[in-house]
Design a protein that fits this description.
It contains 10 helices and 17 strands. The protein has about 375 residues and is α/β, with parallel strands linked by helices. The chain has 2 domains: about 180 residues, D-Maltodextrin-Binding Protein, domain 2, CATH 3.40.190; about 180 residues, Periplasmic binding protein-like II (D-Maltodextrin-Binding Protein, domain 2, 3-Layer(aba) Sandwich), CATH 3.40.190. It has a 6-stranded mixed β-sheet. α9 crosses α10. The longest helix is centred in the C-terminal third of the chain and has 13 residues. It comes from Sorangium cellulosum. This is PBP domain-containing protein. Keywords: Signal. InterPro entries: PBP_domain, Phosphate_ABC_transporter.
């Protein structure tokens, strides 16, 4: 069992949850003003933040639920901060406006990890299973990596005073060093690619690899916002060398400005056999592949039983205070009206219901999170 511990949640706990008002004195360090207002701009109606990994799932689920909401994604950390109004200054940026710094903007947040330090009036609802996969081009002949070697490559070997890898000593540089059993180009440097720090995927990856910081050679992909799409953090401001936004010339470019960061990482991996990138299962693209870890494939059985090292639960978490009516429409559809359909949407996007949908005794959201 990893440090996340074991968390068992059922649909019953979701239905019975009653949100309570925020005590601004007791929780001032993590919770902003209790009155929330969803994000509304010239191009966005009732927007809410959360996991980028789940962007395609939640976008489709919102559409099917009939809720008048717009899912903005951008990362689980932003979703959590917007539940609590606790975003670091200047806040969560969207279309040139900063949100969630001292003001609660939403009461639901799809997340690819649990809440940090959950408050008494918050609720965590596990809704499915996922895994962090290590992606590369499908032509790469390496097919199995040890999780310790993955940790060495991304976070280095030096431990800080807290006993965590701190990214200061990074001796694993070549494919021959991470895949001694063989690879397409053993003498080539590994092109390491990761999600940004707002990502719940990054939080889980760091925890499972005992990592406090990444090696400096790891390239970071973030959400650049509408009109830009995913971008490397070292791209010039307002541009993306991945989508071509703000760049001279016609391309070709690897991704569309409408792709999620997870989609982009999948396409980056599909473009180059030297790339090794981590992302959720929704990064599956034509031309890429997910590597085995410690000899175990990321598939339904190994992810559900936790034998795949980077398996994890997916969540729709709730904050304190009253929901917006449109949030209630969405939550009622997920947890009361059509829970199985929501699980089907998860599986349509390469994730898994917590238990087999074909099992005659299947109960929605019967999740055990290891």
């Amino acid at each position: 069992m990893n440090k996340m511990g074991k968390l068992v949640l059922s649909a019953l706990s979701v239905v019975s949850f009653a949100a309570c008002a925020v005590n601004s004195t007791d929780q001032a360090e993590v919770v902003g003003e209790s009155e929330q207002a969803l994000v509304n701009t010239l191009t966005t109606t009732n927007g809410f933040f959360g996991s980028d990994t789940l962007r395609n799932v939640i976008t489709q689920a919102v559409l099917e639920s009939g809720a008048n909401l717009t899912y903005l994604g951008t990362g689980s950390g932003n979703g959590e901060n917007c539940l609590r109004g606790s975003a670091p200054s200047p806040g969560v940026a969207y279309e040139g406006v900063n949100y969630c710094n001292g003001t609660v903007e939403q009461t639901i947040a799809p997340m690819s990890r649990p809440l940090k330090n959950p408050q008494e009036c918050e609720a965590q609802h596990a809704v499915g299973k996922d895994a962090i996969a290590l992606w590369t081009k499908s032509t790469q002949t390496a097919d199995d990596l040890a999780h310790d070697d993955v940790a060495d490559a991304f976070c280095g070997t030096h431990l800080n005073g807290s006993g965590k890898r701190d990214g200061t000593v990074c001796p694993v540089d070549l494919w021959s060093e991470i895949s001694p059993g063989g690879s397409t180009n053993p003498s080539h440097p590994i092109v390491l690619v990761r999600r940004d720090d707002a990502s719940g995927t990054t939080e889980v990856f760091k925890e499972k690899n005992n990592c406090s910081a990444f090696c400096s050679n790891v390239k970071v992909v973030e959400d650049g916002g509408p009109g830009i799409g995913c971008r490397y953090t070292d791209d010039a401001p307002g541009t993306s060398s991945i989508t071509g936004a703000g760049m001279p010339g016609p391309g070709p470019w690897l991704a569309l400005v409408t792709d999620s960061v997870t989609d982009c990482i999948g396409k980056i991996a599909a473009s180059n056999a030297d790339v090794l990138a981590y992302a959720g299962l929704d990064a599956d693209e034509s031309g890429n592949k997910a590597l085995e870890i410690d000899g175990v494939e990321p598939e339904a059985e190994t992810i559900r039983d936790g034998s795949y090292y980077y398996s994890r639960c997916l969540f729709i978490n709730e904050g304190c205070g009253d929901r917006d009516p449109e949030e209630s429409v969405f939550m009622d559809w997920v947890f009361n009206t059509d829970s199985v359909r929501f699980e089907e949407v998860l599986e349509d996007h390469e994730f898994f219901a917590c238990t087999d949908l074909e099992d005659p005794g299947h109960e929605p959201f019967d999740c055990t999170c290891n």
